[in-house]
Specification:
This protein has 6 helices and no strands. It is globular.
């Protein structure tokens, strides 16, 4: 079976790639990823924090960034009461944070460099975080 751009365009994924709002969601997630790694690395290597403390601080900075941009830009049409939506976002973020910290600790225990371990852990929990926010925190109410 040959792969072609036309075949991809007919798939659900192909159709999703043509929707601008999906690219906006990806951009917000990418900024959170970069912020998380930058803060984590600065605290770990620059300030001498333990990896778990650095991961916690970088999580707090990145999750704040992501909530603000998701609420104001990405999911602006799905805004609900700021308190309830914020609480749902925080719950999803805390679940993703717990998974991130578990993966980070496991990767470091296996000898992976601490910054590389955080980069991998964040990538692995991103789908959980994205799905939780898309389907629950910022779901479309009809």
């Amino acid at each position: 079976m040959a792969f072609s751009a036309a075949a991809l365009a007919r798939t659900r994924a192909g159709k999703a790639l043509t929707r601008p709002h999906n690219w906006v969601q990806l951009a917000v997630g990418a900024t959170g990823y970069v912020i998380n790694l930058a803060v984590y690395t600065a605290l770990l290597r620059g300030a001498g924090f333990h990896y778990a403390a650095a991961a916690t601080c970088s999580f707090l900075v990145a999750v704040t960034n992501n909530y603000i941009w998701n609420r104001l830009w990405t999911f602006h049409a799905q805004r609900a009461h700021v308190g309830w939506q914020g609480l749902r976002f925080l719950i999803v973020a805390l679940v993703a944070y717990a998974a991130n910290l578990a993966l980070l600790s496991a990767l470091i225990a296996f000898g992976v460099d601490k910054v590389l371990a955080q980069a991998i852990a964040v990538i692995l929990v991103t789908p959980l975080n994205f799905i939780g926010n898309k389907l629950w925190s910022f779901r479309v109410r009809r």
